[in-house]
Amino acid sequence: MHVQPRYEPEDPSTFFADGRSERPPVEGTVARGQLRTDELLYTGRVNGAVADVFPFAITAPDLSRGRERYNIYCSPCHDYTGGGNGMIVQRGFPSPPSFHLERLRQAPAGHFFEVMTNGFGLMYSYASRISPEDRWCIAAYIRALQLSQHGSAGDVPDFERPTLTGQPQ
């Protein structure tokens, strides 16, 4: 009983008319957990165009998660401020573009999601390493980094402005 005849994957067989030992998946079958019906969440696009909106409301915990994931996956190349001078760049790897370039400041949020998903230039895809939700959190954190370097006093709420100048409240 312990040595029963069996087929290895993709062994030929005379049992089925197509000569295969295994059966093809049923047309339209989706693996458990792989149903991707939300185009924006999983592709960064809306009706085929790169989106400039997020698929969910970004909260403080989302930004915190984005910061954590950014520091793990992105900062080695892009550095902690997004300037493109991370540790591997300091050791001779080509420098990625700064997130503070006008071109990237004007890029839609979906662009950053797509780059993380598919890779770009020398950057490889992080789709297998970072979940779609976390990629969106990182994109939101990149927007926060951009704002931190290009914000103005007008962006600060009135009640917080005295802390900028060092005046007591």
3D architecture notes:
The protein is mostly helical and 169 residues long. The chain contains 8 helices and 2 strands; from the N terminus they run αββααααααα. It has a two-stranded antiparallel sheet. Strand 1 and strand 2 (49-50) form a beta hairpin. Helix 2 (60-73) packs across helix 7 and helix 6 packs across helix 7 (132-150).
Keywords:
169 residues, mainly alpha, two-stranded antiparallel ribbon, 8 helices
Summarize the structure.
With 169 residues, the protein is an all-alpha fold. It has helices at 39-43, 60-73, 75-78, 87-90, 102-105, 109-118, 132-150, 161-165; strands at 45-46, 49-50. The chain is elongated and about 85 Å long.
What does the secondary structure layout of this molecule look like, with pairings?
Layout: H1 39-43, E1 45-46, E2 49-50, H2 60-73, H3 75-78, H4 87-90, H5 102-105, H6 109-118, H7 132-150, H8 161-165
Antiparallel strand pairs: 1-2
Helix pairs in contact: 2-7, 6-7
